[in-house]
Design brief:
three-stranded antiparallel sheet, 2 helices, single chain, alpha+beta, 60 residues, Ribosomal Protein L30, Chain: A, 32% helix
């Protein structure tokens, strides 16, 4: 599987409870924080739910 790097670029203030929980599950807290995950189904689903708050890059 490929790896992706997920970075929080917008504030979570104003997001609903489920979006905040999704960001917590991805491991993103503060703006600018980044994490790497395997690009599998559950992770890609979480990324899709908060795509307006994050930036996603493929890691080689």
């Amino acid at each position: 599987m490929a790896k992706i790097k997920v970075t929080l670029v917008r504030s979570r203030i104003g997001s609903d409870r489920r979006q905040k929980a999704t960001l917590d599950a991805l491991g993103l807290g503060k703006i600018g924080s980044s994490v790497e995950h395997e690009a599998n189904g559950p992770i890609l689903g979480m990324v899709a739910k908060v795509k307006h708050l994050i930036r996603v890059e493929e890691v080689k």
